[in-house]
From TrEMBL:
Key words, A-Z: Hydrolase
Protein name listed in UniProt: Alpha/beta hydrolase
Domain of life of the organism encoding this protein: Bacteria
InterPro entries to which the protein is assigned, alphabetical: AB_hydrolase_fold (IPR029058), Xaa-Pro-like_dom (IPR000383)
Pfam families hit by this protein: Peptidase_S15
Ranges of residues in domain Xaa-Pro dipeptidyl-peptidase-like: 48-123
GO molecular function: hydrolase activity
Organism: Rhodocyclus gracilis
Amino acid sequence: MNARAETVLIAGAAGAIETIVELPEAAPRGITLVCHPHPLFGGANSNKVTHTLARAALKLGDIALRPNFRGVGDSAGTHADGAGETDDMLTVLAWARQRWGDLPVSLAGFSFGAYVQTRVAQALAEAGHPARRMALVGTAAGYVEGARHYETAAVPATTLIIHGARDETVPLANVLAWAEPLDLPVVVIPGADHFFHRRLPLIRDLLMRAWRD
């Protein structure tokens, strides 16, 4: 964690939401909320893909927020299948706006966290405050490992969607089936598995290129 970072506990509907907050060296240009993979399968805000997304946003001048979902670390509550987690992420964003003002919001997520971010984006759009940009990595969609099923929401056409060609948890075919009717391009990384082993620098570079103004 860098010197301009802190861990805070934000009051949410189920109790505290433990959140790592990282600040850029210069005046912030925006707020990026980053969501981690499934909490029942070891997901936490320390996940390497999640950390990579946050560091890229930080390099671009955004405040990077990495909350722990319910029941992870010092976050209160229990897993809520995405609905409670969506509410918590909206609470974190409201807290950030109170602290830093109405900065542009970006959303990034990995696996289950990407699925949650599609719900967050939908809620923000319905409230008349759409996210400026999105990046979804290894997005949970359709039937995945463990007999779970995700009805993943539509996202803007400008969303950066990254998936591994050899993803063993969320098959690439699932994401393509979700993206095709929405005319969403998908960046496929050859040889990459779900956790993008040895591909993290590529994830960072793709996000920084897509989000650089």
